[in-house]
Amino acid sequence: MEIIRDKRILIGVSGSISAYKTADLIRKLRDLGAAVRVIMTEAAQEFITPLTFQALSGKAVHTKLMDPSQELAMGHIALARWADLILIAPASADIIARIVQGRSYDLLTATCLATTTPIAIAPSMNQQMWHAIAVQENIATLIRRGVKIWGPNSGSQACGEWGLGRMVEPKELIYQIAKLFTHPYLTGLSVLITAGPTREYLDPVRFLSNRSSGKMGYALAAAAEAAGAQVTLISGPTNLDAPVGIQKIKIDTVQQMSDQVLSLISKADIFISCAAVSDYQPTHISSQKIKKIDKKITLELEQTTDILKTIGEQPHKPFLVGFAAETEDYKKNARVKFIVKNLDMIVANPVGYHQGFEVDANECTVIWDKGEIDFPLFPKTVLAQKLIQQIARCYYEKHPN
Ligand code: C5P
Question: What is the whole-number distance in angstroms between the Cα of residue 341 and the centre of ligand 1?
């Protein structure tokens, strides 16, 4: 989400109960380093006070078009020019209609008229209102004019009904904002990513696994999608939600992951094997829970299929990116894997009890045939963007057209 840093986001708040979510949105945007200013309509102030948004945005909230003091500080023309993005969240049926009509009686609508900045709206209203022909025709008009429509989502509503009309969550709005500012340099490319751990079963209730949380692979999937790629994520068991806009396939075992990768690989332009794939599996899986009878038991293990190496041996292989999580000599070991698995790139990262796995930040060295780059410790979301950029650079070097 580094892309959001220093962006100037003008948030328009109209009269809807979802305005409380906008408080969280503004906080998250500030945490990401964005500059935020807020315009509230009169109806919005019935739901939440300007003071809340003032405290969160760190700036006085703009509420009036005809207020000489506010106009002096930053009038509607200056606000319209200041913003890199105007996001109306929540957008009620009424503000949508007023924007469609080109009204300019209040500060928010006047600002929307006075701008060439991209405008996005996050609708929020009762599901019956959302389906009303008037609202749908207004939305169609806004789409024709290039306004981005983010949402609404479906679910339970404050009015007690169920359906489409909930404002999309701040997390998803932030994702949409990041996507809007990202140059879509992977448009037209298909990226297949594996993430998370695998499980190798001993019996119906026990398995061998590892500490991979999936955070790095999921962050890579989100970054590739934001860069315009069509992304498929094959994921072992994790606690993470699929990033927005991504097809996620859940698997448990190496064999299941291998089956999915082999069935999808021919459509992929880039394959990023970020999963912590088990190297060994039990030779025998007990059909019943193993009983606690013997004092000592021995597990016999055999090597699993090396999915990445198998793909590396194919005559028509996509651009291949492997990961090497190592507790010692991580660069040296990664260079060997780069050759043995016939890769285009390998990401070497040191791991330990409190490093690499489960944590939110990661450091690594990217190795490919023409060079190496060290990336110091970054949040995984930031590192993912840098890795996707580097993968794209090397991919286009190999496929100039
Ligand atoms: O386990 P190893 O260090 O060899 O993993 C290096 C790379 O190979 C990683 O990208 C991992 O996802 C992949 N791998 C695989 N199948 C395995 C083991 C590892 O695809 N059985």
Answer: 9
Which is the catalytic residue, given 112, 159, 364, 394?
159
* Closest residue to atom 13 of ligand 1, CA basis: 308
Same domain, 334 and 280: yes
For ligand 1, mutation pick of 198, 278, 304, 308 (most atoms within 8 Å of CB): 308
| 193 Cα–ligand 1 center, Å | 13
Q: Using most ligand atoms within 8 A of CB, pick from 255, 307, 345 the residue to mutate for ligand 1.
A: 307
Average pLDDT, stretch 190-205? Answer: 97
Q: Which domain holds residue 44?
A: 2-181
Q: Do 96 and 200 belong to one domain?
A: no
Strand partners, 247: 232
Whether the CB-CB separation of 82 and 117 falls below 8 Å is answered with no
- Which residues' Cβ are closer than 6 Å to ligand 1? 254, 273, 275, 277, 279, 304-308, 322-324, 337
For 153-195, the pLDDT digits (tens) are: 988 888 888 889 999 999 999 989 998 998 889 999 999 999 9
Return the CA Rg of the chain. 25
Query: What is the reported pTM?
Result: 0.80
CATH number at residue 140: 3.40.50.1950
Residues 344-395 pLDDT 10s: 999 999 888 878 788 888 899 999 999 999 999 998 988 999 999 999 999 9
CA of 325 relative to ligand 1 center, distance in Å: 9
Amino acid at site 15: G
Placement of tokens 């110091």 in the chain: 376
CB distance 321 to 221 below 8 Å: no
Neighbouring C-beta atoms of residue 144, cutoff 10 Å: 8
Q: What domain count does the chain have?
A: 2
Q: How many CB atoms lie within 10 A of CB 143?
A: 11
Whether residue 151 sits in one domain with residue 134: yes
Q: How many CA atoms lie within 13 A of 81 on its CB side?
A: 4
